[in-house]
Amino acid sequence: MIIEPKIRNNICVTAHPLGCAAQVRAQINYVKARDRIESPKRVLVIGASNGYGLAARIVSTFSSTASTIGVAYERPGTKSKTGTAGWYNIKSFKKEAGIEGYQAWNINGDAFSQEIKAQVLDIIRENLEEVDFLVYSIAAPRRMDPHTGELYSTVIKPIGNKFTSKTVDFLNGQVNEITAKPATEEEIAHTVKVMGGEDWRLWVEMLQNGGVLAENFLTISFSYIGPDFTKAIYRDGTIGKAKEDLENSADQINKVLAPQSTDNKGQRSNSGGSPLHIPFIQGYERKEPARGLYTADLPALSRFSFYRQPSHIRR
Q1: Would you tell me how many other CB atoms lie within 10 Å of the CB of residue 78?
Q2: Known catalytic membership, residue 30
Q3: CB neighbours of 22 closer than 8 A, spacing ≥ 6?
Q4: What are the tens digits of pLDDT across the range 198-249?
Q5: Among 303, 249, 292, which residue's Cα sits nearest to residue 52?
Q6: Distance in angstroms (rounded) separating the CA atoms of residues 183 and 172
């Protein structure tokens, strides 16, 4: 099969397996060329096929020697059609990890579903016993509520007023104006349902109820600020409302993971976890939090570093 780039709405919808493998190796080589990081050794990444999720998994393995489970929802290739870039990324990551002797499991499926959560739980129990660190990094167009079966869809729209800007057609080089109409209340609610923090909370609760949270378990999710240019449709738009819900979920999960009471010997009476906080990402630049358990330093997708401090992040 000859693979040629096909562009739809300024997005390339074809991916080359060798190109994806090359960029995964480039990120790995970038990480290996730098100092080791002491970090959790049993890592679960939800949304592991692209962007920050893939970067976090690469650093966890190749800088911290961690065993990882990566969950993604990608389309494999066929004889006549290429798979998604994410499909080739996770396959390439697993291959590279295996070459160097690291444990890595890929699960391809809907992370919002109960079935995928059950599969992850089985892998942890059978191979890792517990998980130390959960990275939640999902960007999805749709989500089906696992309890009601209702389907929700994401929109990227402003709230209150329309947004007009210029766009470039990369096929012919023409510059045109594009306008996004303001979102309806239903569209806002749907976007929060998909991109907010509800599913993140469900993952943590599932792991806790399954008895697989390590004593010092930590979790992280990425929020977004973005530049002023796109503020109307991102931070002040529907995605911003979803990110507010995601950030508020940190406080809710903190309560779930709060250290449990101690017995008269000072020992924890049952397994709990450590509080979590969210780093705020502005493009690929570091947005310094006041004090947080983890912060991302990502001038490139392949950089992911974190440190620990016991306080709250700036809202």
Answers
A1: 9
A2: no
A3: none
A4: 999 999 999 999 999 998 899 999 887 778 888 898 899 999 999 999 988 9
A5: 303
A6: 30
Q: What is the pTM of this model?
A: 0.82
Closest CA to 96 of 160, 21, 150: 21
Helix, coil or strand: residue 230 = helix
Nearest to 246 by CA among 215, 225, 216: 225
- DSSP 3-state helix, strand, coil percentages of the chain (rounded to 5)? 35, 20, 45
More confident residue, 234 or 271: 234
Average model confidence (pLDDT) across the chain: 81
Nearest to 102 by CA among 60, 73, 131: 60
Start-end of H helices in the chain: 17-32, 51-62, 85-99, 114-123, 185-195, 198-209, 238-257
Tokens of 298: 């990502």
Q: What is the pLDDT of residue 80?
A: 83
Which is catalytic among the residues 52, 234, 294, 307? 234
Distance (Å, rounded) from C-alpha 60 to C-alpha 185? Answer: 40
CA atoms of 82 and 28, how far apart (whole Å): 24
Q: Is the pLDDT of residue 290 over 60?
A: no
Asked if residues 172 and 135 have their Cβ atoms less than 8 Å apart, the reply is: no
Alpha-carbon dihedral sign for residues 173, 175, 181, 182: positive
Q: Could you give the CA distance from residue 279 to residue 277 in angstroms, rounded to a whole number? A: 7
Listed in sequence order, the residues at least 6 apart from 248 whose beta carbon sits closer than 8 Å to its beta carbon are: 197
Residue 234 near residue 139, CB atoms below 8 Å: no
150 membership: H or E segment, kind and range: none
Mean pLDDT, rounded, for 269-275: 41
- Report how far residue 241's alpha carbon sits from residue 184's, in angstroms, rounded to the nearest whole number: 13
Q: Give Dmax over CA atoms of the chain in angstroms.
A: 73
